[in-house]
Design brief:
The structure is a homodimer.
Chain A lengths: L7 H6 L7 E4 L5 H15 L4 E3 L7 E8 L2 E8 L2 E5 L11 E9 L2 E5 L2 E5 L4 E5 L4 E5 L3 E9 H7 L16 H16 L5 H22 L8 H17 L7 H8 L3 H9 L5 H18 L8 H7 L5 H12 L3 H7 L2
Antiparallel strand pairs in A: 1-3, 2-5, 3-4, 4-11, 5-10, 6-9, 6-11, 7-8, 7-10
The structure holds a DNA duplex.
DNA sequence: TGAGGCGGAACAATACCTTGACTGTGGCGG
DNA sequence: CCGCCACAGTCAAGGTATTGTTCCGCCTCA
């Protein structure tokens, strides 16, 4: 990409917000703003063509790192973004973007579908695929960047779920949107650990809301998907049992170990690897959770089916890059 | 319990709501309402004494089964509920009740703590232990019943987390309260499956919010908290002994005086300061107690380990703002 | 003014956590 | 079903945080 980088330096200084990073066109002279905006959006979001209106550009983004996600609060003048089929691919983010529209008009096209959002509504799109976003007036929105694998593992046929209209006034959509807005609103007030924990809930709720509007026609050999689902459910219920092993899972689900192994193969994983992942994940969450602040690390580890602290320690570090106690400290 | 059951039948019919069960005094003739209300509350919540205001009773409850929890939306006229220490124990629910206050005034007493809620605020109490709830005006609230084991396994020392004030305007409290209100609001709109899934999130968020306000001695590591508890127990047993001093406590508990001093430091107090506080408090209670009306002040003081009346007098005034005899007179 | 309670500093004894090396087996893939 | 080797599980050593001690000087209050 040829975007010039003369703003890179000034950018890195322009962000003294407590938790989030703030970018604003206001910090620059009007003639520079458009170039600057192109660079920022290209770097932080996706490589898109930006068509600003004739009037002056105003655009303000506050970006929060949110565990595995990124939450952005965006206010902007009218704008059009377009990602073309052959965009040069220094992909900034291999992610889906979930949008919670707050005010103004918002129109999105992707995969031949088109969606209009009212304030409160949500939608999802693939940041790396061609898309077209039109906002003919000043508007504001929340944008949640969700790394592709995270959604893939949660939603079968996610690629068919883009550019759908998720109503934000009723039912689960309203609950999810309300929750995420609430998180964004309180972001600065929250402890780092609390804030992180909320991201998991946000993702869960988004996925739930998505499920209500997804088209029903994607076909993934149903029985296999169901079987895998059952297996995972069984694992979830028995995570804390140290003797959880292929034989146990097999007995508990009525499927042969070999078959289970094949099921996991589909997502480039294996049974026990998955089990350890889930255990680690549970421990990690508990380490962050202030409610368990008084508990020893070994208590937590044993509670989730580890039976040896050294084993846990090693695995944890390998997975998350630092030792359990460092992790707990670092996220206060 | 002797509550009559003549309403049982009519109750079971009075609930054609889609998901929730609705109870309302409106469905009954005014003279019957109070009896009916007593029965419903006793059966659905806890066995409490109900003191209605002089005016007519209005009370409306919609109860949703929420996976392992129960969510109630309650609107009511002024009311006072009191669970006495020796309530006959056909315990309707062995659960904690989380309250999200919506409108009006709400005051709760339990375990010697007292909490006032503003709209939006939350608190938690143990439905099976004595408690006292005062709402002097019409009010509305959400109530989430959480089976005891569910909270026990999530929060160490949950029994000390009752009657705490969880602010509902800021930070995690606002996120949690907002989420649950949103769930209640959309309850009728949601699929059964969706609705169930949300309960897990609700519980998680509640627990998180609780963690931010739990009393500080839970940030104390377990062993330290235990040690402090032992020290206090020893003090309580020997309050009346005038020679109770650091050396004695040390001997009685097996901890060094210095260490005990450190323990008290954590609650911004010191050993002997605590001892005098307890003695004064005991004396104060006895001064108020009509049983001891005939006893001389110096008898009372000496009985609680003071060995010098002038010392007692001075401390008392310093603490409670008036002399012991004034205090006794003033509170007849 | 002196007795006694309080808390700072320095230190010993643990408890708790992390890491490394090693090994035998059970989970994985053909 | 079977063979192979990655990896779960042990043991031991080292490091760091926590717990509890002693000694001592200061300050308060009777």
């Amino acid at each position: 990409m040829n975007t010039d980088t003369r703003f890179l330096h000034s950018l890195k200084e322009a962000m003294p917000s407590t938790r989030g990073v703030k970018y604003s066109t206001e910090d620059f002279a009007p003639p520079d703003r458009l170039d600057w905006l192109r660079e920022v959006i290209g770097r932080e979001y996706a490589n898109v063509e930006i068509t600003p209106p004739d009037a002056g550009v105003f655009n303000e983004m506050v970006i929060y790192a949110w565990e595995q996600l990124r939450l952005s609060v965006i206010r902007s003048d009218a704008i059009t973004l377009q990602r073309l089929p052959r965009e040069p691919d220094l992909i900034s983010q291999d992610a889906y973007f979930a949008v919670i529209h707050l005010s103004g008009c918002y129109r999105l096209l992707q995969n031949g579908r088109e969606v209009f959002l009212q304030p409160g509504d949500m939608t999802l799109y693939d940041a790396t695929l061609p898309h077209h976003i039109v906002c003919p007036q000043p508007f504001s929105k929340l944008l949640i960047s969700i790394p592709r694998p995270l959604l893939r593992e949660r939603v079968a046929g996610i690629e068919h779920c883009t550019a759908l209209h998720i109503p934000g006034r009723l039912g689960i959509g309203s609950v999810a949107a309300g929750f995420i807005r609430s998180c964004a609103h309180q972001a600065e007030q929250l402890q780092a650990g609390e804030f992180s924990l909320l991201s998991e809930h946000a993702l869960d709720l988004l996925v739930l809301a998505l499920a209500t509007v997804r088209p029903s026609h994607f076909k993934l050999s149903k029985s296999r998907a169901m079987a895998l689902h059952r297996v995972k459910a069984f694992i979830e219920n028995n995570l804390s049992c140290p003797s959880l092993n292929p034989a146990a899972v097999s007995a508990g689900t009525g499927l042969s170990p070999r078959y289970i192994s094949l099921l996991f193969k589909e997502e480039d994983n294996s049974l026990m690897r998955y089990v350890w992942q889930r255990r680690l994940e549970s421990c990690r969450k508990e380490l962050l959770n202030p409610i368990h602040a008084g508990h020893r690390i070994c208590d937590i580890a044993f509670r989730w089916g580890f039976n040896d602290l050294s084993h846990f320690s090693r695995l944890f570090k390998q997975h998350f890059g630092c030792s359990p106690s460092d992790y707990r400290e670092g996220h206060k």
